[in-house]
Write the structure tokens for this entry.
Amino acid sequence: MIEKNLERLSTETSILPPTRPVYLDHHATTPVDPRVFAAMKPWLTERFGNAASISHRYGDEARDAVEQARRQIAALVNCEPTEVIFTSGATEANNLALKGFLWQVGKECELIVNRGEHKAVLDPAERLSRDGYSVNTIEINRVGQVETDSLAEALSAHTGLVSVMFANNEVGTINPIAEIAELCSERKIRLHCDAVQAVGILDVDLQQVPIDLLSLSAHKFYGPQGVGALIVRRDRGRIPLTPLLDGGGHERHLRSGTLPVALIVGFGEACRLAQAEKSADSQRLSKLRDRLWNRLASQLSGLHRNGPPDNCLPQNLNVSVEGVDGDALMTGLTKIAVSSGSACTSADPAPSHVLRAMGLSESLTKASLRFGLGRSTTEEEIDLAIEHVTEVVQHLRS
Ligand SMILES: Cc1ncc(COP(=O)(O)O)c(C=O)c1O
């Protein structure tokens, strides 16, 4: 029924153009996998109970479904199910980690972030700083990586929390998170990691890497929008956190509010699928990504690859194009949906802070394209993208 209505909506109205551009913006969001949707559907219709209702079967069913999803999420990152705290997404998880920790431990404790982080880390850090908390922001290198040595130099006796993303959402750079986690753990400093772009495609194993707080978001790997989690590890002692919301004390008193059962079931199913498919997805996507880069670079001069060729997310390619205007480039690219360095990560159309922090000029920052490949991306689509980008760039340069 829902599918029929959507089909009718798109054919009978002019909301969507007849042929939509090839979707290559999977870092922004991914489509819900049909298998995820099938798992969610009963929880949006006949199985509508509140997981916090303890006096009847509707509640029991919903609670069982939530607990199964919690186990699926925990299995993907190899932690205990009791360490999974559901949130509305990674923005909330990051806010809970950073603000929750500093509010609890106080203003003497220093937080270290870096310039490559998503705004969902940088903005709460900035808010904390404005409120009188101690926040230090370190640089990233030319490929967008946090160097362990630079972080080691920045640590002080007051540092209590470090936040380093697993992999960058713009340029795909994978940080040396195992080294960073060891460094923090040796100094008894807590480590938060925004793993949004890595979970579901890379191996993230919390038994191997001593990360204390890990943020996830379902819609980045074929689950629904509006649900995520903060993993709060307990194996190195309780992590002090003040909740952002006061209410019914759900989620071990860390996140009050009725749990969105259907979204959580979808999140769990997305994790189950990712566990089974991430290795094959990763190999296939890195081949397609390499084809995209190699062919574009052989056909167009003045193309710069942003981020490292190795140590990069398999689904990511970020390039800057010399000699073209960024806005004209984006306007010209009508056959593909990609994002640009001029309005990449938020509703704020400022040039990418990540590319600027990597040392790119303003014009190369603006004339940059982020390709995000995904599970449904085909070789034909990549070939169409190669042809289209080449044509548009040559036209703009002529
Ligand atoms: C690295 C990173 N962190 C956080 C977020 C925000 O995630 P959510 O949409 O779940 O709030 C995103 C989404 O773009 C992201 O890429």
